Every structure is written in structure tokens, then in C-alpha cells.
Amino acid sequence: MSLIVQKYGGTSVADAGCIKNVARRIARTKDEGNQVVVVASAMGDTTDELIALADQLSEKPDNRELDVLLSTGEVVTSTLLAMALHSMGYPAISLSGAQAGIRTDSTYSRARILKIEPKRVVRELEKGNIVIVAGFQGITEDMDVTTLGRGGSDTTAVALAASLGAKECQIYTDVEGVYNVDPRLVPEAKPLGEIHYEEMLELATYGAKVMHPRAVELGELFNIPILVASSFNESPGTLIHGGVAMEVRNKVRSIAHNLDIGKITVVGVPDRPGIAASIFGPLAKAGISVDTIVQNASIQGITDLTFTVFKSDLARAMEVVKPIAAQIGSSKCASDDTLGAVSIIGTGMQNTTGFAARMFNTLSEKKINIQLITTSEIRITCIISADQVKEAVRVLHHAFEIEEE
Ligand code: ASP
Ligand code: MG
Predict the structure, then answer these.
(1) Does residue 385 lie in a domain region?
(2) Where is the domain boundary, 119, 152, 174?
(3) Measured distance CA(264)–CA(281) in Å, rounded
(4) Among 12, 28, 199, 360, which residue is least crowded by beta carbons within 10 Å?
(5) Ligand 1 centroid vs 287 CA: distance in angstroms?
(6) Is the CB of 47 under 6 A from ligand 1?
(7) pLDDT in tens, 252-266
(8) How far apart are CA 323 and CA 314, in angstroms?
(9) Is the domain of 164 the same as that of 269?
């Protein structure tokens, strides 16, 4: 008998009808002779609605209370799913994250899973139950409820799959898998049959919203195959795993884009040891994650430092950086929130020449100005004006012929 973990996203359980549909899919998996653990997301936009409600009552809702509030969304879905399964004659039990043994640190609203003690889950499976775990939440050593950050149910699912030794983690959503390019921008976009963890991690980090990057990382770490598929039809979906041949396909596999970019430039900083640390240390402390960092070669001991953050963190990042910039003698500190990023991704790019040149040529032919460039071994990202991102995605899709699998 195999153990399968299935996670259902918010749109897949948006109302009673959707929950019935999901219950039928779970029942089928059970009928096929599997043990089934289900991770449920909050129904539809519940999490956003709960946040809006809290915002009406407090200017700055207390972190601890907010996490308990948000965790209820997932609890609602898991109980309703259990009831739907009961009425179809299937034994099922819902568990909160705490009951399922998901232990986290105490960073409210973006807690990290420290370990999972799945005794209760295992016991219920042994009794023949379908076990439904409320996603996106855990509990601290002091028994306080935490949440794992927006989109965190994916992480719950993969972490549970790893700790239970599941055969596969299935992520069900409202799209047919992982697309090679955003289908809203390029109508011929297709879901990929399979993708390597590393490519998926780049894709999730640099724009594709379909899976949470932390969940992909966990999948790779514990070698759990992850299937991303639709809960609304029977299309095969995309399998994320480590066995995809890395070098045979000498090509770009997918294109990601992202409009959530804020840029900060600190002009005229002295080029001496400790300056970067004095800026990025306090940013890290404020919980602001920095992506691209570029420092120019210095002229007469003076240089410029440019970096990007999430747009939503831009104002806070400026508050942190401005006083430091003044202290170290910078002449100006400027921000820009009109940017976007477009990335080409593929493990076949490793140690192969020509990809960067083709990308830059393609963009220049369309008079798209590149402001910053970053790369990994399997990714090239160009930061450009936000209003040219759509066009960039389309021309790159064409230039790299990513349709032809
Ligand atoms: N309900 C949470 C959110 O909307 C977690 C999740 O859906 O994964 O972010
Ligand atoms: Mg959600």
C-alpha cells in the first residue's frame, strides 16, 4: 500500500460544490488502495478576508492573535472535507497543524517548520482513516499557533510527505500544471510534463505563482516527487522530480516574469570594507529579503550600490537604508518601483554558450532597455521597465522556441 499526500488549494475548495468534488477525488485515491493524507487550504479568499477583518479592528493587529485567526481558515476546510467524506461512507478525520505534530519556530506569520512528529497521523492512518490536515500552520514549543507565510500549505504538504515517507506529494490547483510561460501572456503556452527541482525552484522564485519555493526546496531535499495538477479535470499535470535528464535538452525550458520588484540605489558610497555589511545587515534584521545586488567598479574610491527588494518592502527598506546611507557619506539614495523582471530558465543552459547573447539581442531588437542582469547556472534574469515585461516574455518565448519540447 502506498501513501499519497494530496494538497488542495483555495480555489479547489472554494465552496460546498468544490469540496464535494475534492472529496470524490480523495475517495478515488483511497479506493485505488492508497493511504491518503490530505492538506487543505482555506476556502477561496478566506485568508484575505480574515486579514481585512483584522485590519478593520486594529491598525497593527497583534502577531500572535493574527496567526490564530488566519489558521482557522484551513481548519474550516479540513472539517468540511472530513464531513463530505463521512457522508460518502469513507472514514476520515481532520487534524489541526498542532494535532498533526507540525512544530515550528515562533516567528509569527512566517514560521519555519522545525520538525514534524507525525505519531497521531500515523495512528489514524493505521486505523484506516483518511487524514485531513489543516495546512499553513503549526505550533511552537509553548503551544502557540503559528502560520507559515502566504501560500504555506504547499510547504505543509511536502513536509508531511517527507516525514511520512510518502510515495508522492500531489498539489491540486486551478491550473493544469507548471507552464513553460504564463498562458495569460502567451496563448500557446503548455503545461510541462516534467521539470527538475532546480528549474522549478528558479521558476517559483522568479515569478511562477503555482508553487511555493520553500515547498520545492523541501521536495528536493527529501527527494519527494511532486505532482502539480488541476482538481477540476483529469489532465496529467507536471511532475517535479530529480530524475529529469539535465543536459540532453540543450535549451531554455521556461520563461518567468515578475512585477513585484523595487529597486534602491545608494549613490556615491565609499569603496571600503564593511560598507555592504552596514547596509545589508540591518535590512536582514528588518526581515527584508534582498535579491539582485550590483556594485559598480569604483572610481577614486567611490561607487554606487544597487539592489532589489519586493515592491511591498520598498518603503520599509528605504526607511532602513536612508539613515545608513547618510551616515556613510552617500550623496543620494533613490528608489524605483516601475520595474519588472523577465527570466529564462533551463538546466540545459549550464556550461553552454550563447543563451545570454541571444536574450540580450532579442530584447534590444525590441528596444527594451536592460537595467540589471543577474544569473545563476541555470537562469538569466533581466530587470527592465515593468510596462515592457509582457512584450519581453512574448519575444523571448518566440526567440527560444520553448514550444518545441
Ligand atoms: N490560506 C493561506 C494563503 O492564502 C495558505 C495557502 O493557501 O497555502 O496564503
Ligand atoms: Mg491560498
Answers:
(1) yes
(2) 174
(3) 15
(4) 28
(5) 20
(6) yes
(7) 889 999 998 999 999
(8) 15
(9) no
